[in-house]
């Protein structure tokens, strides 16, 4: 390596150089640290329009200076992409408040099934056009990368057709084209004629039945085109292959870089790679290579051995140190191209454990750095119009970590690089995989022709390249069906070729291939089931090898939930019209637009809240208003999400039939929703959120619905000692029926201890005998301090599942519902609250709220919900929509008995107050509404 190149490599990879260099040198080094010659096309903006309004063809549209008056100007999102056709219209004011009520239907039409685009103006191709001015000299080479099209596209540059839709097809299939003869100094133009997305025929993406289907089928550009300018030699595809010792005491890192020679003669150059640890000295490796004319070769460096590497962990198990890989390709000391990326050193393995009658091949167990854990996550959905927002991603990651979840599952919606970068830094795990129910899931192997297999292969190459460096991505797999052999070969060949070093899973159902073996996973249910359902470990349909909709806590559940989520009243009023709000509590069979497009109930129709509503009616009694309906739904959703996650922890120690992981279906939606979510599009956190959060607390006590015993779990990174747990049983009047304590307990990281206590509860009854409602209160203490409070409301009349009618269906049929209606007659209670606010980090405010039950009667103040709101100077709520939906609470929806207090902490952006002062509202199921200032004081306003 030349001296000049060595200095350049150091500048590229040693942050300390930047901190001590003079202004000019620092500026040069910062420029070098960016990928040299690499640029994102379209950052200044795009012009977008349907071809029905453009008479000219690509040879004119792609000419610099082409007149675009009347076109839709589109700003790229935070990924640098212009997005979908509907996004272009919305950016230009075509449908204000597009997600309110059924505005999207009124503006753009309605689609009731996945398939081709049938609605004008989206059934015609659309032009996406942008100008770019590259930093290029005569004689240099230029390569254009189109990283995928949601649909298909003809690509034009400066009046010349570069590629047709026969090649440029697929949402993730990236293609690079040599445009050296077309691109020139000065203004250039890229134009892409985007053909309508048909997810049944194209390897793209869709919304399945998760929401309403955008009438444009998300046709557009999700990832931005890029341009690489270079001299004769171009480097790309740089990555690190890890070979870690089993105990991670050392790691061998092999750096690979693809080097292409675009010249007509052989070229010699220098390739340098530097691995910079999170702390410590960088390691530089170099090679001089000669590449034949017009060829591409992979340059593989000798392995670099690192002793005692800094190991990346999920956030609940340890830290997230990231190494930096920087590469440089030069000739005669002149830099041609460079790259910079990060990676984490970690080892992911998986195996099948616990062979049983339900799972004859065993359950899928994932291991990070040699440590088994119960994965707890949710199915992640991007914005409905595929608009990427860095800040929104950061906020959602904060919500997910606040939930205590391990990570997310991405089904068929691979994300922009920033998403994975943020997940890496946050220690959030990501399950990747292909989509179900469309072209990615063919009916026969024979329908996959040579073009199909090429697109599948090319898509898999791009997916591997995008995700392999990210330690957060820990497995990838298929959805409902296992792949056919030719389909599997296309994917696995690409993954191996690109060194994608994660376990690959054959299916999200209990299916297998000879190559990959059994998946060890299962799916369903998707609609309401009782909380006790999750604790079942014996019922399954022996004739259904896929084990679908046998959702008890055994095995690895790749997607399941009890269906619909009712947001808080604040959130409901933001997106449902008054008429829809009335239908929500008055007409359970109404097809809510913000559920999905399936108008019925029962089976795989989820467009109404009928099944959930019937369960609330039977278990809690009739509601009389929107407010009372929402109150009951919060309680019902809370107990169900808590039970689902707790059951999988409770059963994780069953060696004969263990539960190894659960993915809540779904975590979120890309628009306001009533279906499958733990938090809403506006950041709102309803009862479902706080039930799941309670179950996933780092140090937690839970009550098993199946055996009536108390289990403790430690989901943190270190051993926890000095633990004790108190279990009290109380009736609705506040009388203590049982009080037990167990102490002297220690739990290792990810440890679960069952059978700690068995509270004495009232005897079971069956209708028509009167039912008794009672509470079980668990208080987990460490060193005498309460670290976890968990309150259950239960009935002597249990939910009884009719398994013969339930198995095989995505919802439960019951022969008897639990009777919790005595909760409606709880004695009135009273609480006080004291709040204090101080500055947090980065413009945050942190408010602590101590809530105390001050009632004179012995009963509970049940299901107390706190919200931070915009207030008036005298401590009242400001008029209008005043809830800070994006605030994150450490706990909520709590229950207190007289004399008990609990301090809640909430973090929020000061800017969200919009100049108002914070006030805290506290509402309970059997208390009035209390509003207190967000600062010191015991005053407040009661309703």
UniProtKB/TrEMBL annotation:
One Gene Ontology biological process: carbohydrate metabolic process
Signal sequence interval, chain numbering: 1-26
Domain Mannosidase Ig/CBM-like: 723-799
Record-given protein name: Beta-mannosidase
Top-level taxon of the source organism: Bacteria
PANTHER family membership: MANNOSYLGLYCOPROTEIN ENDO-BETA-MANNOSIDASE
Similarity field: Belongs to the glycosyl hydrolase 2 family.
Entries under Pfam families matching the protein: Glyco_hydro_2, Glyco_hydro_2_N2, Ig_GlcNase, Mannosidase_ig
Domain Glycoside hydrolase family 2 immunoglobulin-like beta-sandwich: 239-346
SUPFAM superfamilies according to UniProt: (Trans)glycosidases (SSF51445), beta-Galactosidase/glucuronidase domain (SSF49303), Galactose-binding domain-like (SSF49785)
Organism, scientific name: Amycolatopsis vastitatis
Keyword Signal in annotation: yes
Domain Exo-beta-D-glucosaminidase Ig-fold residues, every copy: 814-927
């Amino acid at each position: 390596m030349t001296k000049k190149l060595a200095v350049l490599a150091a500048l590229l990879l040693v942050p300390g150089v930047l901190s001590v260099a003079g202004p000019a040198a620092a500026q040069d080094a910062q420029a070098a640290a960016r990928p040299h010659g690499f640029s994102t096309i379209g950052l200044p903006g795009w012009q977008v329009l349907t071809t029905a309004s453009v008479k000219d063809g690509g040879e004119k549209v792609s000419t610099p200076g082409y007149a675009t008056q009347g076109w839709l100007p589109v700003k790229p999102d935070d990924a640098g992409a212009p997005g979908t056709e509907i996004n272009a219209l919305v950016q230009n004011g075509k449908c204000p408040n597009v997600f309110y009520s059924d505005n999207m239907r009124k503006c753009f039409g309605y689609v009731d099934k996945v398939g081709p685009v049938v609605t004008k103006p989206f059934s015609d191709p659309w032009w996406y056009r942008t100008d770019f001015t590259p930093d290029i000299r005569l004689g240099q080479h230029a390569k254009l990368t189109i990283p995928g099209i949601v649909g298909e596209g003809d690509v034009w540059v400066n009046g010349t057709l570069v590629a047709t839709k026969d090649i440029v097809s697929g949402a993730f299939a990236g293609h690079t084209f040599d445009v050296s003869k077309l691109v020139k100094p000065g203004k250039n133009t890229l134009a892409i004629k985007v053909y309508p997305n048909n997810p049944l025929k194209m390897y793209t993406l869709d919304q399945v039945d998760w929401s309403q289907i955008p009438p444009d089928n998300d046709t557009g550009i999700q990832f931005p085109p890029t341009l690489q300018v270079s001299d004769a030699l171009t480097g790309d595809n740089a990555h690190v292959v890890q070979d870690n010792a089993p105990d991670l005491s050392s790691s061998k890192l092999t750096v690979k870089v693809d080097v292409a020679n675009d010249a007509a003669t052989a070229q010699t150059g220098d390739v340098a790679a530097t691995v910079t640890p999170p702390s410590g000295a960088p390691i530089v490796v170099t090679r001089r290579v000669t590449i034949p004319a017009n060829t591409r070769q992979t340059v593989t460096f000798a392995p670099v051995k690192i002793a005692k590497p800094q190991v990346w962990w999920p956030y609940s198990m340890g830290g997230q140190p990231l190494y930096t890989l920087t590469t440089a390709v030069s000739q005669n000391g002149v830099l041609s191209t460079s790259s910079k990326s990060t990676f984490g050193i970690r080892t992911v393995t998986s195996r099948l454990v616990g062979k049983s009658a339900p799972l004859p091949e065993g359950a899928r167990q994932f291991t990070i750095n040699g440590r088994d854990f119960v994965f707890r996550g949710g199915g992640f959905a991007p914005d409905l119009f595929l608009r990427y927002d860095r800040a929104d991603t950061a906020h959602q990651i904060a919500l997910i970590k606040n939930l205590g979840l391990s990570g997310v599952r991405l089904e068929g919606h691979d994300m922009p690089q920033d998403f994975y970068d943020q997940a890496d830094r946050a220690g959030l795990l990501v399950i990747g995989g292909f989509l179900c129910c469309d072209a990615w899931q063919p009916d026969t192997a024979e329908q996959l022709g040579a073009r199909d297999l090429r697109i599948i292969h090319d898509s898999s190459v791009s997916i591997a390249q995008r995700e392999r460096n990210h330690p957060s991505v820990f497995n990838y797999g298929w959805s409902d069906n296992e792949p056919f052999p030719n389909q599997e070969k296309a994917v696995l060949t690409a993954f191996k070729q690109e060194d994608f070093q994660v376990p690959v899973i054959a299916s999200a159902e209990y299916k297998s291939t000879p190559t990959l073996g059994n998946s060890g996973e299962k799916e369903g249910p998707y609609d309401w089931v009782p909380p006790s359902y999750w604790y079942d470990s014996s019922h399954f349909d022996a004739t259904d090898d896929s084990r679908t909709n046998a959702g008890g806590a055994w095995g690895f559940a790749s997607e399941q939930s009890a269906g619909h989520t009712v947001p808080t009243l604040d959130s409901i009023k933001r997106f449902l019209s008054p008429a829809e709000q009335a239908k929500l509590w008055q007409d359970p069979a109404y097809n809510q637009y913000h559920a999905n497009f399936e108008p019925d109930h029962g089976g795989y129709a989820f467009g109404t809240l009928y099944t959930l509503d019937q369960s609330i009616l039977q278990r809690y009694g009739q509601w009389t208003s929107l407010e009372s309906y929402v109150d009951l739904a919060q309680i019902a959703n809370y107990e169900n999400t808590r039970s689902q996650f707790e059951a999988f922890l409770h059963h994780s120690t069953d060696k004969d039939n263990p539960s190894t992981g659960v993915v809540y279906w779904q975590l979120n939606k890309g628009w306001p929703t009533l279906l499958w979510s733990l938090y809403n599009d506006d950041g709102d956190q309803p009862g479902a959120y706080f039930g799941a959060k309670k179950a996933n607390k780092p140090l937690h006590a839970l009550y098993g619905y199946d055996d009536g015993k108390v289990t403790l779990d430690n989901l943190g990174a270190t051993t926890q000692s000095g633990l004790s747990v108190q279990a009290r049983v109380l009736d609705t009047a506040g009388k203590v029926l049982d009080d037990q304590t167990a102490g002297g307990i220690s739990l290792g990281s990810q440890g679960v201890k069952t059978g700690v206590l068995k509270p004495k509860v009232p005897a079971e009854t069956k209708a028509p005998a009167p039912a008794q409602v009672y509470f079980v209160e668990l208080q987990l203490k460490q060193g005498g301090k309460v670290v976890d409070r968990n309150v259950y409301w239960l009935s002597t009349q249990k939910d009884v599942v009719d398994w013969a009618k339930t198995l095989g269906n995505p919802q439960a049929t019951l022969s008897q519902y639990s009777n919790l209606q005595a909760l409606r007659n709880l004695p009135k209670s009273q609480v006080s609250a004291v709040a204090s606010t101080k500055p947090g980090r980065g413009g945050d405010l942190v408010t602590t709220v101590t809530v105390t039950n001050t009632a004179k009667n012995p009963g509970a103040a049940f299901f107390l919900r706190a919200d931070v709101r915009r207030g008036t100077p005298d401590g009242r709520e400001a008029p209008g929509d005043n809830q800070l939906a994006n605030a994150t609470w450490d706990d909520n929806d709590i229950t207190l008995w007289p004399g008990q207090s609990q301090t809640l902490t909430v973090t929020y952006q000061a800017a969200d107050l919009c100049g108002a002062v914070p006030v805290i509202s506290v509402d309970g199921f059997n208390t009035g509404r209390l509003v207190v200032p967000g600062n010191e004081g015991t005053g407040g306003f009661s309703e």
